[in-house]
Amino acid sequence: MEPCTNRTHVEAVINRLLMGFDIGNGPSDENAVTLNGEFVEACTKAGLPLVAVVGAAERIRSATTLIPRPNHRFRPMPPEFVAEAREGMVSVRTKLVRVRRILAAEVYDPPTDEQRAEVEKARKAAADHLQRHRASPDDLGDAYQDGKTIEHEPLSDHAAERERREMDRQMDLLRSAGRDPNLTHLISNLDRRRVGA
Description:
Shape: elongated
Largest sheet: none
Structural class: mainly alpha
Helix content: 55-70%
């Protein structure tokens, strides 16, 4: 899709196109050369590839232009021709982008037997780790046993006993630190902060 740098090729396509419009009462040879030169100059300045010039000429000749023209009996102006050629390149460039994406796509290589064995080994290690660190069903409550998810389900005796022991341990720590963890002590601390503020 490189721009066509050979003016002779572009001129041949333009001569063939414009010849169809000049049958009978065409311009003089000098005028035809000047007009052809304008078309060639417009196409080369626009950097159009030869395929775009040929496609636009064929569409104008067959009256199937992509850009609507008011009257197909008259020759197009050079800017109209360039616009038609550019419009025709949209679908070509879209196809090229698709082809380039397909060619640049990452190729999937199926895993080898060694890779599959490595993944299976990691999966088993993870499953063993989860199995070792899973909480016992006694600690999860009755809802876990039934397969239900009820957050307010009462704790089992074992879990409730463990929770009571932890609470007693924390209370002993507070008492050993010289603080009495009762409610009146906490409220008096709160009242002191309010007075100080």
